[in-house]
Amino acid sequence: MIENNPALIDAIRDRFAHVDSCPFQGPRIFFENAGGALTLKSVVDTSSFYASLPDNPGRINAAGQAGQNVIDKAKADLAVFMNASSGQFFTGESGTELLFRLIRTACVNSPGKSTVIGSSIEHPATRSAARRWAEISGLNYENVPHDNETGLVTAEAYAALLTPDVAVATILHASPVTGMAMDVAAISKTIRGVAPECLIIVDGIQHAAHGQIDLDSYDVDGYAISPYKVFSRHGYGIAWASDKLSILPHDMLINAPATGWEFGTRDAGAYATVSDVVSYFEWLGGETSPETGRREKIEAAGRAIHAYEAHLVDAMINGTGNLPGLRDMAHVKIIAGADNSSREGLVSIAVEGMSSPDVVEALNRQGIRTHTRKADHYSGNVLAPLDLADCVRVSLCHYNTLQEVAEFLGAIGEIKVEIAA
After folding, report:
1. pLDDT per residue as tens digits for the range 310-327
2. Residue 420 has pLDDT above 60, yes or no
3. CATH code of the region 45-278
4. Which candidate among 256, 325, 367, 379 keeps its CA 20 to 30 Å from the CA of 410?
5. Would the pTM of this model clear 0.85, i.e. be above it?
């Protein structure tokens, strides 16, 4: 466990850059993890080293071969981290770009007049891609409505609209607006029960930092993450494609290997930082469990992260020490409810009588970094049905502390005083 181990919390925080201060702002509490998690110090060092190398991976020289070995190792590490016994991993511009590629390939290879199904809770990375390529490919698009009160879409909701002609399905693993995690395995099983040959693509971008990924148990065909949201750096995304999806005709160079999905020279440094992230999860699993196997330690790390973040979220909602929680503040509305077991390290709120940008700025003046989500093309699908123009997203990660939560609650209490004044 993390919560009762101050020495471990200190050791965790010591592995991240800028954990309690910003080089531009000074001391600050970082509750903007859904916008991009803190970066491992090892990732910073690794990025600097590989950025200095002129050699292309795979060239017949020592540096080129070393670069290719780094890429091969990272792909093997990803297979352990995400528990993928088949399929392939590759990098691209971003998680969003990779989701577009996966969904485009699935749609253009589907029979005409078949159906693409997705849900209203999804980030536009999948919703936009699915709707665009369904239209271009002559496919129908079916929207599964999410539950506004819980911020979730369930397998039962998908089941109500499934038909045997569903050829492509998209699933959001966790929402960057509500913080809720969907039951991917249950949704996938429900889809397979009606349309067994359906190509299923999952957006795992928000989920990746908050718990383990288990591709073998999901029975899906595509999964994408953004490494900057899971302790690495900006500038690339990672996708996994099943063997079934990999062999479908897709954008590629003429006469290139039929299953190749990457374009141009790869950044060995990006792949190397992936191995740093996997090594971190292994280390944490070793600190929080007696496990010795790599996958077992990663799973243990995921359980520890989930439990500790749930502890922090509970304190934020229900209070800590003599500080009332968000649920006890009459001027605060908690998006998707105070009692929601699907929440992953994120609480979105609206403050009565004050716009969310003003709340974010007031918190920022006190050194607490949060973020505004507006009812725009990114978050309108979630906020508009709640009659909210915006909300304040407070996103935690396992390197945050109970003291930081207490400081946030005190600041929100002061905002109440400001409104009353």
Report:
1. 999 999 999 998 999 999
2. no
3. 3.40.640.10
4. 379
5. yes
**pLDDT tens figures, 54-68:** 888 888 999 889 889
Chain-centroid distance, C-alpha 242 = 20
Report residue 63 as tokens: 């540096």
Closest C-alpha to 277, from 238, 237, 235, 232: 232
Structural domain boundaries in the chain: 6-40+295-420, 45-278
CB atoms under 10 Å from CB of 164, counted, come to: 12
Residue with tokens 């850059």: 17
Using CA atoms, how far apart are residues 78 and 101, in angstroms rounded to an integer? 20
Q: Domain 6-40+295-420: which topology?
A: Aspartate Aminotransferase, domain 1 (3.90.1150)
The number of beta carbons lying within 10 Å of the beta carbon of residue 336 is 25
> 6-40+295-420 and 45-278: same fold?
no
Chain centroid to CA 240: how far? 14
CA-based end-to-end distance of the chain: 43
Model confidence at 417: pLDDT above 60? no
What's the rounded Cα separation, in Å, for the pair 4 and 307? Answer: 11
